[in-house]
Structure formats: C-alpha cells, structure tokens
Amino acid sequence: MNRFQKLNTRFNGYLPIVVDVETAGINPITDALLEIACVFLEMDQEGILNPKKTVSYHILPFEGANLDLKALEINQILDPYHPFRFAKTELETLTELFELINQELKQTQCRRAVLVGHNANFDLSFIQAAAKRCKLRNPFHRFTCFDTATLAGLAFGQTILAKALHVAKIKFDVKEAHSAIYDAEKTTELFCKIVNEYRQKTEGRGQE
C-alpha cells in the first residue's frame, strides 16, 4: 500500500487535528481562552483525507484572565460567564479533550498529534499556555504545526481564510465567522482539499 493511503504514515507518524480557538485577546499568557473546536480526521481506503468528527467546548476564563472588550465583540462572546454558555474550566476542558486525542492516537497508531490551523501558531500558543496552567501533558507537538495560511498561499495564492476558501471554491459565510466550530470545519475543508489535490497531482505525474 502506498504510504499516502495510511493516516499513520502519511504525515510521518503524526496525527493532524484541525483546531480553532476563540480568545479574549492575543496574548496566550494573560488573555482568556474562551472556545476551542477540534476536528478529527480519517483517511479512506483510497487515501482520501476527510473530516471524522468535531468536538467543541466553551471555556470559563481562568482566574485573573484579561478580557479585551474588542476581542469579545469580534467573537460575540459578550459575557464569558453567562450560564447559558455551559462553559467548563480549562482543566475540565483540556482533560477531556486530551483524553480524546490520546484515544485517537492509539486507534490510528500515530505517535503524536500535530495541530492544523489557520495561522496555527496562535491556536497552539493558547493551548500550550492553558495546558501549562493546568499542569497537563499536551499531546500536540510542541512546535511543529500545519498552517493552512501558508499552505493556501502555496496552493491558491491567498493567505486570508475567506479569500483562500473562495479560490478553492469552498462556501464561506462571513456571518458565521469567528465561531470556533465554523472556522475549524472550514479550515478542515481547506486542509483536506489541499492534501487530497496534492496527492492526485503527484500520483498523476508518477503515471506519466
């Protein structure tokens, strides 16, 4: 079997997980992590990468966290403490999420998770900071990530998510943007399209 047809060998033993976070600012040390959505991926028998399932969490600000009002207006989380958010603490959230990731690693026989995101270092930095506050082992690679802004720049000549999706002919509703679930799932569509089209092109060259 071609190594491109197995998830645990396609990315050098890493398991790509698409992540989007919503935050109360841009500083992962001082600003609150308010939402996180993760899309797990799978590869079919033909070696095509597809979304498998999405998990998402609303998160309570950690004690002493900064809440930037402009950031809250952008992501429409005007009251992070509102009871109808049904938010959990960082510790509860990351304990549950990391357990799910470790289960996926075991199931897929991958050695480490790698974060996929649009401007991925931003998402990774907030997860790393929260994991450190909670004293939890982070299953994501410490510095390697797959950045769809970079990949889209290469594949479609656009680095802004909405513009890259437009060129890739993937529907995008601006009104839904800045929702962790929506942005994560659209980033997933973009990532899968880039990976799958690259495979088709390379296999086509090999048959010439």
Task: Furnish the topology, listing elements before pairings.
Elements: H1 7-10, E1 14-23, E2 33-43, E3 49-58, H2 69-75, H3 90-108, E4 112-117, H4 120-134, E5 140-147, H5 148-156, H6 161-167, H7 180-206
Parallel strand pairs: 1-4, 4-5
Antiparallel strand pairs: 1-2, 2-3
Give the helix tally: 7
* Strand line-up of the largest beta sheet: 3-2-1-4-5
CATH fold node name? Nucleotidyltransferase, domain 5
Q: What structural class results from the helix and strand content?
A: alpha/beta
Number of strand segments: 5
Assign the CATH class: Alpha Beta
Query: Helical content, roughly?
Result: 40-55%
* Straight-line N-to-C gap: 20 Å
Average residue pLDDT:
94
Largest sheet: 5 strands, mixed
Uncertain spans:
none
Overall structural domain count: 1
Strand percentage lies at 15-25%
Shape: globular
Explain the overall architecture:
Strands 3-2-1-4-5 form a five-stranded mixed sheet. The chain has seven helices and five strands. It has a single domain (3-202), classed as Ribonuclease H-like superfamily/Ribonuclease H (Nucleotidyltransferase, domain 5, 2-Layer Sandwich), CATH 3.30.420. The model has no long low-confidence stretch (mean pLDDT 94). By secondary structure, the protein is α/β, with parallel strands linked by helices. It is globular. Helix 5 crosses helix 7 (180-206).
Keywords:
Nucleotidyltransferase, domain 5; 208 residues; 7 helices; five-stranded mixed sheet; alpha/beta
How would you concisely characterize the structure shown here?
The protein is of the alpha/beta class. It is 42% helix and 22% strand.
